[in-house]
Amino acid sequence: MSSTKVQEVSRKRLGSPLYEPTKPPATKRSRKVLVSKEEIDEADPLPSSKKHKLENSLELKEISTVETISQISFNQRHQSILSITHFKQPLQIQSDYPIPEISPYEILVQNRAIGLNPIDWKGKKYGFGIYHFPWINGRESSGEVVKLGNKVNSKTSHHLAIGDKVIVSSTSYRDNRTSTFQQYTAIDSRLVWKLPPQYTYEDGATIGVGLVTAGILFYNSFGFELSPMPKVHSGTLLIWGGSTIVGIYAAQLAKLHGLTVIAIAGNKHAHYLTSLGVDYIIDRFASDDEILAQVEKLSPNGIDYGIDCVSKETAIKVLNMLDSNSYKLKSSLKKGANEDGQTVDSSPQFAGVVGVPKEERIPKSVHLKPVIIKRFHEDVEFGANFIAITSLFLRNSQIKPARYKQYNGGLEIIEDALNDLEKIGANGEKYVVSLKN
């Protein structure tokens, strides 16, 4: 079942939140935890004032007691989860798993719809991104706020209350409390969207991962300014994988910034992508020579930005197309010279969502840009600002939720849906599982 629901609503503005760093989850007593350097993700290239510095190969962390409060009585202690108990075993429902504790800036969300991503089946199948058993997968959902930390709404979030409908995107991959293949998810209150009233829970479950990834591409990788009034750029973006969920949201952000968008995708998605503002669609089943010829024809002034959402192999193709068109950027008058009469560097920029080839395969004419998803939660000020601004875009239907294929049946049906996602692919729509009330 596929569905899109789009309505125009009036523009509203959000206040500017104040920010404080997120503290660890609540514990009954202080305890010391040894965390090895190898267990920490690769360093995030943020300004030094925002980096998490490691002083030794073993870092001693003091986890302090914190208190949480709720505006309603929430006495439930256990929940159902969909757990991974072994790489070779089927997923299992556990009905006596503890509900996550929340820290002062977090909320507890009762999940109503869950979005599925390829990583949810790839991690188990290929044995990566799973750090202990039982393990809970799931990176996005939408649902209802049932509990508040004691610092939520102390000028730190957009006025969340018990019963609010929210959209969740979990980028803190090692923290199972934030995973979504469970009835209840703990998440930073500053990093959730309120679900616009014109959209369903299922609409909301399509948004999190795709929009956050697209946002990182533009506002971190490519360095666009994050503003409620997007600055218009004269340039062209090439997306390989235009009908992927990331491609769908990247195209919409690109159009907000005035870019010309060329999407390589199956022709059957052409009408849908055009409805989102994509300017040109090139059939991904055409030969490499045909695709290159069409790109050359459609980009007389060159390609400024390239995004690959599919594989390392297609990333190489995008890089080569950027390289072969780079001379157009350098000769184009649209960038010209700066105030001193010096030639402006007009090299194309590339970002690969799934993977990038080895350094020797990257043309010297192309700037490779990293895709640092974890900045969304590690740099809370950036993440909260992104939430505030894209909330406006969602409410005003400047960004529209992706189409979805709906599965009813709750946690029990997720494994079947993941099998379909692996065998069939997303096919221009998000796989969404609806949970029972």
From TrEMBL:
GO terms for molecular function: oxidoreductase activity, acting on NAD(P)H. This is Zinc-binding dehydrogenase family protein. The lineage of its organism: Eukaryota, Fungi, Dikarya, Ascomycota, Saccharomycotina. PANTHER family: HYPOTHETICAL OXIDOREDUCTASE (EUROFUNG), ZINC-TYPE ALCOHOL DEHYDROGENASE-LIKE PROTEIN C2E1P3.01. It comes from Candida parapsilosis. Transmembrane segments: none annotated. Residues 80-433 form the Enoyl reductase (ER) domain. Pfam families: ADH_N, ADH_zinc_N. It comes from the Eukaryota.
